[in-house]
TrEMBL record:
The keyword Cell membrane applies. It comes from the Bacteria. This is ABC transporter ATP-binding protein. Coiled coil: none annotated. The lineage of its organism: Bacteria, Pseudomonadati, Pseudomonadota, Betaproteobacteria, Burkholderiales. It comes from Acidovorax lacteus.
Amino acid sequence: MSAATPHLLELKGVHTHIGAYHILHGVDLAVPKGQLTMLLGRNGAGKTTTLRTIMGLWQASQGSIHFAGRDITRLHTPQIAGLNIAYVPENMGIFADLTVRENMLLAARQARSAAQMDEARLQWIFGLFPAVQKFWNHPAGKLSGGQKQMLAVSRAIVEPRELLIVDEPSKGLAPAIINNMIDAFDQLKQSGVTILLVEQNIHFAKRLGDAVAVMDNGRVVHAGRMADLAADEALQQSLLGLSL
């Protein structure tokens, strides 16, 4: 790990078994501090399993995971979340019967009531995602897919986080909402949050990514600058079977 590009998160030789299935086959992944790293790959490449293994939802059977220089490989999920890491799963994990406000309050660990939530931070989030403010007192289950995704990300950042991990934030969203999401992640990055994103939308990846890692068959098969991958159509074709 060089002093010039300190890695906030680093996976070395990570293997993950789920039951009888060997999903990750020695994943090496470095997430530079203060940057947005894209994790790309075809369906079934192991991207979601990598995120779940980082968060301790599935245990690595081999290898190591370090966050801010600390070995977190054997920590449990609540301990990992307590290190200022937020995770937005692909299914978003919204509590449908609770209001938007109640969903946000659950994630604000320092607050016992909505009045105790950081008002300046809430206003910043409302600026990123106006729908969260608009539907503040509505049941979260009544929101559209795009609005639920905005709530899921808002909930993850209701308190300052050092690392934000998000699984396919643009999945199923309309282009206008995707652009809104891109702007929000860009602002988050500018605020100093390190972000690791799994994404299938190549436009999204190209607009936002600083670094990129491409997975195939449970391994990272390419790592480098997103701009270099975006500029190299032959490499895109060989790694992803598509052009950006």
